[in-house]
Structure formats: C-alpha cells, structure tokens
Amino acid sequence: MTLTTLSTLQNYIGGQFVDASPGETLDVVNPGSGEVVARSPISTADDVNAAFEAAKAAFRTWKRTTPGQRQRMLLELADAMETNADELVEAQHRNTGQPRETIRVEEVMTGADHLRFFAGAARVLEGKSAGEYLEDHTSWVRREPIGVVAQVTPWNYPLMMAIWKIAPALAAGNTVVLKPSDTTPESTLVLARLSQGILPDGVLNVVLGNGSTGQAMTEHPVPGLVSITGSVRAGMAVAASAAKNLHRAHLELGGKAPAIVFADADVEATAEGIAGAGYFNAGQDCTAVTRVLVHESIHDKFVDALVAAAEATRTGDAEDPDAYYGPLNNASHFEKVSSVIDALPDHAKVVTGGHRIGEKGFYFAPTVITGVNQVDACVQEETFGPVLTVQTFSTEEEAIELANDVQYALASSVWTSDHGTALRVSRDLDFGAVWINTHILLAAEMPHGGFKMSGYGKDLSSYGLEDYTRIKHVMSAL
C-alpha cells in the first residue's frame, strides 16, 4: 500500500491492507502546518471482529512456534525498521510534526533496539524448577501466551508505543489486534507493511478508528488481555470494558512527575537537566518533569537558571535545525494546554512562556510558573505540555509529602549530591520510576510503569514480557 496525500488509509488484517466498512472518516492533520494529510476510516464492529478472527486463526499456529523462531522474525522486523527508517520518519512526521531527527533516534532506532531486546528475552523466561513438592509427584510450571491481545496506542510516540505493545506480546507467542491513535496512524501502518512476509498472516493486525472503535475492541469476547497507553479516563473505561468479560487489563496512564531539587544540587546543571526532561517532545510525555520542588534556600537562584534554560529551548518547525521540540499534537490538545494557563489562580505567576508561538501550527512556548500551591489544578492535574510549575520545601519530609500528594505515580526524580539523601528519598517516593540526578531516560532492560492512577502492568524488561504470559501448573504421578 502506498500512502499519498489525502489518501484514505486502510486497515491491516490477516496480512493484507483492506478497506474498512463504508462509513465516516477522520481527517489526519499535520499539527505543524494545520494541513490535512490523509483520511482515516472509523472502523466498525464488523471490522474489529474481522481483525480478531484473523488473529484468533493465526494464534493456532503462532503459539506453536519456538522462542527461537519468533526471535528470528522479530530481529528481521527490527532490521527492516532501520532499513526503511526514512519512510517511517516521514510517515510519523506528517502526523506529529516532531523534528525528524527526534523520530529517527528516539523511535525508529530505539524501537528497533527494543524489538531486539524482546526477541532475545523470549528465550530466557524463567519459572520454578521442576521438583517433587508432593511425595511421588513431580510438578513444573509452564509459562504460556495468553492468546489474542487487544492493544491501543497513544499519539505522543506513535511508533515507539506500537513497538512497546507488539514486541512483548509477539515474543511471548500472542497475536495482536492494535489500534493506533486516530491522529497518528501512519507510522504504525508502515510498520505493518514492513511485517508482511516476515510475520505470518494474522499475527499482527491494525485497525483504524476513534474511541468507538477502541470500545468495540475492548468489549470484544476474543482478547484475553487488553492493553492501553493513554489517559486515566481512557484507562478506566478500558478496565471497565475488560471487566465485563473478565479480561486482564494492562494500563500505562497519566503522570505528574516531580523533580525534587535539594540545596546541595548543582543549580545550573540541574536546571538544564530538568528543562530538557520537561520540554522534550513538547512535554507530551507521561514521565516528563512537570512539578519542580526546590529547597527554599536556593529558590530564586534556581528559578533564574530554569528560566534561562527555558528561554534557550526552541520550539519550531521540523525544518528548523535548532528546534528542540515540535508542536502540540492537535487543536483540541492545544486548547487544553492553553486553558491551563488561562485558569491559573492569581497567586501563580508565569515567569516565562505561557503562549502560542507563530501563527500556524500548534506550537507552545516553554513555560515556567512560580507561586503555585499544592491544591492548584496546575499542580494536581496532568497538563501534558511544555509547562513546569515550581514550589518550595523546607525539609526532606515535606518534599516527599508534596511529591507524593497527587493521584499519579509514574515517574519522579531526585537531584542532590548527597548519596544518603538520594537513597532515602528514592525509597520513599511513591512512583514506579525514580531517577537520581537525571530524568526521563529509559532502558529496554528496565521496567516502566506506575502505581495509583498511573495504572498497572509493566512495559519493557522481562517484567513486561511476563505480563503477556499466563502460568500453568502441571503435575505428574511418578
């Protein structure tokens, strides 16, 4: 399938690109220019059912493949990603407006690396050793694929999130029906095309659509696991839908990551590190720094350094070689981020940014807000934009209390030169990830996932692979 300007995109089912059922379509818009670049169908329950039937049929043979056979196919797909990097970059750039080099490095190349990790991890799954736990009987544990998996990916890292979903699922022996975000479907479709001739037909299926399509997927009786990366609202809806059929749910949801800056931190280096982690991808990252908690003794000095770092950070069109990040993803999200600034209480002060950049596209300036209180909406609710709030604390205990006092629990960081402080605070922070003197970096070998309203289940690492398996006990009389 060739994607052309204003083409109507197709679903990928059973190893073939097929038209969705006749009906409504959605415009796919480049948020950097505001131009419509493609049209996407709103797939119906019939389309969803066809995808699940294809995945169900493929599972009968895919589950019999050995880890080594699945490894070879995933490694081949990773090679295909790198070989076709330019096509993947352009497809995603049309939908996100992200700088091309960001897509190439952070999603194509890193995505290929993550595929390779799971290709190998499939061969080293562990369980209890076989043994006689009852006299004259030998027991052992089988770790098996769940079956067909339904997956929904977000728009902030379209290709990477597709890899995070399909790599562990396929490596474990499952088959997949995946729905990309309705605003960013094209790089996922290119990935599907690259899988042709590598993966058996029906092992990977891609269905396009909006929330109604996603609901049809999560309520379908076939999938044994439903996995979503998205908002808390979407995650709660998926969990409720999955519960109707007692399906397992795997939820990676929102974040409101704090960065705690102690008095002994290197102010300039810390400010630069936090700005980099807060504004990367326009702050459209659930692990991005959003709340800075700084010791009261260095507040003014730190704010000056953070403002300087923010004002040195450039947003703009992907053709701008100095642009650190691109536009917000869509008009609705741009309005949401703007509304956070509009709704600030009188005691809050925007010391830099807080406004649109340019006259076209959805570019938003790097923003720093001071004077906020813990109960303010801008502190408690996810913004998902290039906006940092700054608060003060006086003691270690107060810093931990403020950091933990939100509904999200995905990511956090501690900035200090004291080893004991770093260990104590990392122990007491109630977040799935704690970075020390850095933030936002991930490794395929380490788990990613949160607590509380940030969801449950892990992406990446052997823990992420295990989430796509089930455990069976087998006992034999001797």
Q: Gist?
A:
With about 475 residues, the protein is α/β, with parallel strands linked by helices. The chain has 15 helices and 25 strands.
Q: Could you walk me through the main structural features you see in this protein, from its secondary elements to its overall organization?
A:
The protein has helices spanning 45-62, 67-83, 85-96, 100-121, 158-171, 186-195, 211-218, 232-244, 267-279, 299-311, 331-342, 377-380, 396-404, 419-428, 461-466, and strands spanning 7-8, 11-13, 16-18, 25-30, 35-41, 131-134, 137-145, 148-152, 175-179, 204-206, 225-229, 248-252, 257-261, 289-295, 349-352, 356-357, 363-364, 367-370, 387-393, 408-409, 411-415, 433-436, 451-452, 455-456, 469-477. It is an alpha/beta fold and 478 residues long. The protein folds into two domains: 7-253 and 454-477, Aldehyde Dehydrogenase, Chain A, domain 1, CATH 3.40.605.10; 257-443, Aldehyde Dehydrogenase, Chain A, domain 2 (3-Layer(aba) Sandwich), CATH 3.40.309.10. The strands form seven sheets. The chain has a seven-stranded mixed beta sheet with strand order 15-18-19-14-13-21-22, sandwiched between helices. A six-stranded mixed beta sheet has the order 10-9-8-11-12-24, with helices on both faces. A three-stranded mixed beta sheet has the order 1-5-4, covered by helices on one side. Helix 2 (67-83) packs antiparallel against helix 4 (100-121), helix 3 runs antiparallel to helix 6 and helix 4 packs parallel to helix 5. It starts with 6 loop residues before the first strand and ends with a strand.
